[in-house]
Every structure is written in structure tokens, then in C-alpha cells.
């Protein structure tokens, strides 16, 4: 019986250690203690890439991305807007690349992806995505009002 208890304690300790070294300890603990989700619920991604699906028309999302880049004082290096897909590339003052993909998925749903490159900053990707969403909100382009 003592061996079974030791195995359970060892397993639980190992699981906690693995969670702790991934940097998810706080989020894991708080998620367990709260009914509210932790972190940014509308944007996910891997590495320096973040993406989001929004209830906004494609054309409005493209215009918002262009305004967001202007607001953040980024220099345009590439712009290809065709049909239901827009590929945009910007650089910052330190030659950091920010690629933006805006893609129409339905008449009312648009996919937005921001990628700062393999060695780029996820923070810059998130900032750009949040600025795009802010520009959409400021223009009143969201189709669905979720504020109430």
C-alpha cells in the first residue's frame, strides 16, 4: 500500500514539475481557481505567429490592417491584395519583419494572422493584431456587437 502511495506522489510531483518548467504554472493554477479564462482568449498562435477569426467583412479588415501599420509607424515592403486574400509585409526601424495575412472565410468572417518571423518578437505580433482589432472597433466595422 505504501508503494502505491509513493507512486502517486511521484507521478503528481513529476506532473507539477513539468507544468512548472513550461511557464504555465500561474495560468494553470488560476484557471483551476477561476471560472474566467486566462490569457488572451481571441488570439492564439505558435512562436511569433498570432491569429484570430473575427466577425468583420474582409475589406474592412484589410483597411484596418493598413491603418494599424500606419499607426505603429511601420514601413510597407510588400502589399498584395487579391480577391479574398491580402498579404502584407512591413518592417520596423530595426529591420524586424512583420507579415500580415488577411483572408476572407465567409461573408461575415475574416481570418487575420500576424507573424514577426522565426526570430521575431511575439509581443510585436500581438501588438499588431491588437492594433488591427482596435482599428476595426474604432471604425465600427464589427458586424456583431458583443459588448452587451
Written account of the structure:
The protein is α+β, with helices and mostly antiparallel strands. The chain has 2 domains: 2-33; 44-139, TATA-Binding Protein (2-Layer Sandwich). The chain is 41% helix and 26% strand. It contains 4 helices and 6 strands. Strands 1-2-6-5-4-3 form a 6-stranded antiparallel β-sheet. α3 (58-71) packs across α4. The longest helix has 20 residues, at 2-21. It is elongated, with a radius of gyration of 20 Å. The termini are far apart.
Protein topology:
Layout: H1 2-21, H2 25-33, E1 44-46, E2 49-54, H3 58-71, E3 75-82, E4 85-91, E5 97-104, E6 110-115, H4 122-139
Antiparallel strand pairs: 1-2, 2-6, 3-4, 4-5, 5-6
Oligomer: single chain
Tally of alpha and pi helices = 4
From the N-terminal CA to the C-terminal CA, the straight-line distance is 55 Å
* CATH topology label of the largest domain: TATA-Binding Protein
Beta content: 25-35%
Radius of gyration: 20 Å
List keywords for this structure.
2 domains, elongated, TATA-Binding Protein, alpha+beta
Briefly say what this structure is.
By secondary structure, the chain is α+β, with helices and mostly antiparallel strands. The protein contains 4 helices and 6 strands; from the N terminus they run H-H-E-E-H-E-E-E-E-H.
